[in-house]
Amino acid sequence: MGVSTVWIEFAAALGLVAFGGARLSRCGEAIGHHTGLGTTGVGLFLLATVTSLPELVTGVSAVQFARAPDIAVGVILGSCVFNVMIIAILDFALERVSLYDRVSRTHVLSACFGVLLIGTVGFCMFGRIDWAIPGIASIGLYTPVLLFGYWVAVHTLMVEEGRFVDPEFADRVIDEPEMDSAGAWRGFALAALAVVAAGIWLPFVGERIAVQLAVQDTFAGTLFIAFATSLPEIVVALAALRQGAPNLAVSNVLGSNIFNILILVPLDVLYREGPLLAGVSELHLLSVVSAVTMSAVAMLAVLVRPRQNLFPRMGSASAVLVTIYLLNLYVMYVLG
Predict the structure, then answer these.
(1) C-alpha distances in angstroms, 164 versus 69, 108, 170, 252, 332?
(2) Which of 154, 187, 280, 321 could form a disulfide with 27 if both were Cys (CB 3.0 to 4.6 A apart)?
């Protein structure tokens, strides 16, 4: 199959993901109004889960059918890195004011949980230690730890969400949503179907792109497929920003990172050749370090709210996020 055909397939998959993600923000905002969750709650729990469906489906497909564990882990960790970089994109897209001046400091809590979960994955990946549960050789000890960590994160965020509302940085309130509750849920379901369909397709396309470009599965998963599966986060976040809901945008991005790490739990169960993290390249540790560092930069920017801009329409913190992301890809490509 020629290179042109592979790239056409890749572009078609991107378009399908973008189509599904375009409706998620509008439907999610209406659901938040009807259910009382609000924009931040919808972003953290509902939108973050749905926009992470490509990572879930792509990871399952890569492990179960394509037999490419590096693609699966590269998608998850590469998406975590790219998701934080989306904050820089949002900062660039927001005119006349810094994004970090428009969002609540409560997002630091969800970013902290993301750092803890991603750091746990990196610790368990170091040295390619087996970490197998005695008597269950194909499942790692880290799997129940990640599952418990996700439960703690969701429980804590749900409790704290109602306690630390910052009125100064609240998103606008929708008095009359465009659709009723049933219509909003219908639109949400249709968008999710489009996202899942593209997610099944992507790992096979990524495998062929890796062969065509003579790069490792690690790099292909981190760059091409991680970007594609992060498209819903980009589309939803930009749509939320246009609708005057920056907290919805940021909470969706940070909540997606928490859910992304949860995806490693079913992938580890499905991977029958041993614990998943023991069978992948240690190059993924670079993505772990990048995601943790970028999350720390984002947290500092939200807390300190830096005023100095290095470039027009982009703050110094956002410039650092973009730099770390590009360095992550460059070093991974060179080492690969």
Answers:
(1) 40, 12, 11, 18, 39
(2) 187
Q: Compute the distance between CA of residue 184 and CA of residue 28 in angstroms, rounded to an integer.
A: 7
Measured CA to CA, the distance from residue 185 to residue 189 in angstroms comes to 6
**Host domain of residue 215:** 3-335
Inter-CA distances, 20 with 8, 82, 140, 192, 331, Å: 19, 19, 34, 6, 32
Q: For 66-113, what is each residue's pLDDT tens digit? A: 778 888 898 899 889 999 999 999 988 887 778 888 887 778 888 999
**Total number of domains constituting the chain:** 1
Q: Tell me 222's DSSP state.
A: I
129 vs 35, more confident:
129
CATH of the domain at 321: 1.20.1420.30
Q: What helix, strand, coil percent values describe the chain, rounded to 5?
A: 80, 5, 20
Task: From residue 334, give the alpha-carbon distance in Å to each of 11, 103, 218, 304.
Answer: 25, 37, 12, 35
